[in-house]
Amino acid sequence: MSSTTTNSPPHGVPSAAPRRPWAAVLTVAAATFTVVTTEMLPVGLLTSVSAGLGVSPGTAGLAVTLPGLVAAAAALLLPVAARRADRRRVLWVLMLLLAAADLLCALVTDFAVLLTARALVGACIGGVWSVVAGLAVRLVPAASAGRATAVVFSGIAVASVLGVPAGTFLGELAGWRWAFAALTVLAVAVAGLLALVLPPLAAEEPVRPGAFGRLLRSPRFARGLLAVALLVTGHFAAYTYVRPVLERAPGVGAGLISTLLLVYGLAGVAGTFALGALAARDPRRALLTVSAGIAAAVALLVPAGGSLAASTALLVAWGLLYGGVSVSAQNWLAAAAPGAREAASGLFAGVFNAAIALGAFTGGRIVDGPGLGPVLGLAAGLALLALAAVARAGHAVGAVTGIR
Predict the structure, then answer these.
(1) Residue 401, pLDDT above cutoff 50
(2) Residue 45: which H helix or E strand, with range?
(3) What is the CA radius of gyration of the chain?
(4) What predicted TM-score, i.e. pTM, was given to this entire model?
(5) Which residues contact 78 (CB under 8 A, 6 or more apart)?
(6) Which CATH number describes the domain made up of 21-395?
(7) Are 220 and 398 contacting, i.e. CB atoms less than 8 angstroms apart?
(8) pLDDT of 3 strictly over 60
(9) HEC string of 231-242?
(10) Which sequence spans correspond to the domains of the chain?
């Protein structure tokens, strides 16, 4: 199956025509970088947050679980609630709310208040992703849409390269609260850039709740969404607790953890563009590749715990392959619903974030019980189920059009 995301805007909807299209794309990528860094920062600070607020590491993992749940709901509700609002305005307002939530995280002294702030983070994350996931095709010429989509989604991997490691390092150096304070400043700066650089972005089509049900009745769309749910759930069950996984290897300290997360993120950036190029031509083949590869890499981390070299090599492979998940899935879902980009993006973001929450929660329960090995086994097993879902989707045909 070969497809791309280079669809034209629906008839009657004016195309965005920014004077500096690639500056606009990079600004949107900065927004994705900021929300993903904010969402994932507790992964790198898990030990510090749990000690600082007097909770177990598994309980501290709720700081990742809760935003994912809220983001899942927000991704579906915001396109319906903001039916005709200028998407540029929606984005910069959400980034300012994110800044307020980060500031609250930096000031809390009670874990319950931290969770309240993280719930607000989740609302911002879901809202941002429901808008930006399909936005690249409105900012650049059709021939560049595939590359622009990869750039937007590269914010996920760059958050792993720069955001989470830098936040982890700052947290180790000055305390975890300062890491959230730095994100406050970043979110305000990105909000200003969005207001200045993006053109007016009228809603393409008002999204009505029934649009989501119509999309889910498409076998091709539904199987792609199932693969996303399985891959992301498994990934975050393991990745949320990647720090204790890496700490099994001899000689691993806090400084080396930051370096290893940096290496993981660099591999993710490479994977986003390498597998993104494949996904623009054949998203099914790209998803088959990442599903099989993640299953193998994560499963092999179980026996590799005693070797730093083996753990590092497998971590790099994991990052490279996971870097292709989002861009491959977006290409698949956009091709399956070319006339319903915002509804498709809302479902994609909703399922993605619900899977983050489910994975982080499930991983926390297993880590606090059977331990790290079973967490890695669960992640590998879910990746194999995603592989089966994608393989079967080769026989599911038909795109969904005319969604209202």
Answers:
(1) no
(2) none
(3) 20
(4) 0.73
(5) 90, 126, 127, 130, 131, 346
(6) 1.20.1250.20
(7) yes
(8) no
(9) HHHHHHHHHCCH
(10) 21-395
Of 95, 127, 111, whose CA–CA distance to 27 is shortest?
95
User: How is residue 315 annotated by DSSP?
Assistant: H
- Alpha carbons 404 and 399: distance in angstroms, whole number: 15
**Residue (of 177, 115, 120) closest to 361 by Cα position:** 115
* 96 in Cβ contact with 191 (< 8 Å): yes
Contact in structure between 148 and 25 (CB atoms under 8 Å): yes
Q: Which residue has the tokens 């936040």?
A: 167
Average pLDDT value for residue range 368-375: 79
Spatial separation of the C-alpha atoms in residues 53 and 51, rounded to whole Å: 6
DSSP 303: G
Take residue 296 and report the two structure tokens written for it.
């193998």
Tokens 């000031």 correspond to 107
pLDDT tens digits, one per residue of 317-360? 998 999 888 888 888 887 777 667 777 777 888 888 788 778 87
If one compares 18 and 400, the residue with the highest pLDDT of the two is 18
- Residue pair 117/108 in contact (Cβ under 8 Å)? The answer is yes
